Each structure stands twice: as structure tokens, then as C-alpha cells.
Predict the 3D structure of the following.
Amino acid sequence: MTRARRDYYEVLGVPRTAAGEDLKKAYRRRALEVHPDRNPGDPHAEERFKELTEAYTVLGDPARRARYDAGGFDAVSGAPGFDPSIFEGIFGGQGFSSLDDLFEQFFGGGAHAARGAGPRRGDDLRYGLEIPLEEAAAGTEVKLRLPRAESCPKCEGSGAAPGGLVTCATCHGRGSVVARVGFVQFAQGCPTCGGRGRAVRKRCGECGGDGRISTERTVRVRIPAGVDDKTRVRVAGEGDGGYLGGPPGDLFVDISVRPHATFSRDGADIHATLTVGFADLVLGGSFEVPTLHGPELVEIAPRTAPGTPLVLRGRGVPRLGRSGRGDHIVHLTARPPQAMEPRERELWQELRELESARRARAAESGEPADRNLFDRVKDFLGGER
Ligand SMILES: [Zn+2]
Ligand SMILES: [Zn+2]
């Protein structure tokens, strides 16, 4: 997402303390100003309208608003970007012909009523969680403190004080009204009662008539060993509580794995670098390297070339949902001596002389001076030196 995101309150032009009713009014007023139908030829109108509606979709819902207030954009959208799919149902493919249709759907309870007037499943929640590579590899359990919306226990989600429910005068209790577009008639959720068939005459004192309350809850989430960046863990039933006795939604934890200081990960494999001295490459030896599973020994064969990968089988990351682990791959590099004492210098000098003498003898006798594995493979394949 390239555009800088504006604070939702700023988009709606209301203070952070604004009441629900003020948010709704502000949205209506701003929507009339920026709606693309009212701004023909303005290429940014649609984007501004979407931004506005996104702001209202979040702030207009008490539970989402609480999450936004606490954690900003990430808390309501799932990391990293906002999920535009919630707009598909509102704007996409339904062919709104006018602003009135839009408001009918958006404010008239149409969106709720369309899903049925009775019990309904609660909304899904998303949570962005960053963990270090070690925990991603070993698996972990985290405790998340999450705001979530539930049916008001006092009115059981009806929003009405005891005896405060009456039959809706608009739909006479049916929950739907007949709408007409041209010659086509269709039933639509009642805009007055939101499809419930009943209207609230006296509001519940606990939830103020919303039928929903905002609570906080600690959820334990088990992160399985081997999760990778962008893995999504679903925790069934830990989303928002259901409406009118419906089942709760699910919690989705979107995992991002923090980059490691020395290991890089490629699927189930871990890559690391081991820097040794020139003499180590020439003479070989055994070296301790860190892995995700603790220190391990790698063997360097005598006369190993820099860049040679050394593979520790099965010392990488567990394969998620399968058995076994990836490999830990050590890439060898050599560092030149940082300083030399006179005696070291003498020895390197002497080594070079010995090496030159050996090459000269080999050239006289017509033998290749240095035959390593690479040369032998070339000979085998019939290549030229
Ligand atoms: Zn209530
Ligand atoms: Zn009604």
C-alpha cells in the first residue's frame, strides 16, 4: 500500500471521543461529499470514498473501534495491510444504482438482515504476531490479550430492557420489506428493525441498546514447530461472540518471523556462514558451529575450497505438517591473516617457495601441478584444462 494512511478519526473528521451516533452522522455527511457519483471525473473520488467507508466500518463497530484505539491499523486489519474484501459485499458486484440504495444496505440493517434475523455467527478476529526464528522452529505457546465483542449478557443480545421489545411497525414483525427496482420486486431486510421483526422501545441499560458489549479475554495460542513467515494459525471459536446465541467466530493469528542475526531460512533449511583461516582450509579440521538445536561439529576436509557448503542433515527447521527437519548448511569463507608476526611471515614465504618448486618439477615432468577434485571431474568428462 503506497498511500500514507490517515487516522480513521481524521478521515471521518470527528474527535476520538465521538459517540456512535456522531460517527454515523459524520459518515453520512462525508459520504455525500466524496461519493464517486457526486464527483464525476475525479479519479480519486473512489479511493476517498473507500477510505471513508473503511474508517466507518471500523469505528462504527464498538469492538473494532476498541481494537483500533488500542493497537491502530494492524489491530483491526491483520498484518500488514487492510483486507479490502469486506468491501466486496458492500460495493462489489451488487450494482448499487444510487446513494439511497447504498444507505439502505449500510444503515438500514440490510447487511445484517441479509444474513438472517436470527442467531448468527460472530465475526472472525485477526491478530498479527511476530516471533523470533528460534520460536518458529521449536514451536511455542503465546498468551494474547484480545478485545472482543460479545452478546450483552443482560439482554441476551436483543438490546432491549426487560419488556422493552415491541413488534416492529415497519415490517409488522416479518423482518423484511418488499423493495422494488424497476419491474423487479425483492424482499429486503427491514431497515427499521434490522430484520429482527421486533423494535426496541426501551434500551438495555448494560449495552445501551447495541446488544453487544466489549470485553477483554486472554487466549492461549499454540504455535506449531516449523511455522514460516505468513503462516496463519486458526483458533476455532476464539473470535467475537455470536449474535443472539449464534456460535462465536474464529481467531486467526498471522505469524511473521523476525529475521535472524546470523541464520537465513529457506523453507525448512537454514543457511549460515563459517569463517576460518587459510591454514584451516588447507589443513582441515573440526569446527563448532551454532545451529537452532545447539552447537554442532562440522568437519572440514584438508584442502577444501572456500565457498564449499557443509551440510548438517536434519539440523534445520521441522517441516510443518510433515515429519523430519530440513538441513543446516554452513557456507565456508576464509579470512586472510589480520596481522602477522615475523615468524608467520617466514613460514608463509617458505610455503610459497616450496609450492613454486613443486609446480616447476611437475611442469618438467608433464604432470598437472595441482590436481583437485574439480580437475579430475574435468578430465573424466574429457574437458580441456
Ligand atoms: Zn444489553
Ligand atoms: Zn422491521
Observations:
- The CA atoms of residues 157 and 264 lie 50 Å apart.
- Residues 114-257 form a domain with the HSP40/DNAj peptide-binding domain fold (CATH 2.60.260.20).
- The chain is about 30% helix and 25% strand.
- The first strand starts at residue 125 and ends at 132.
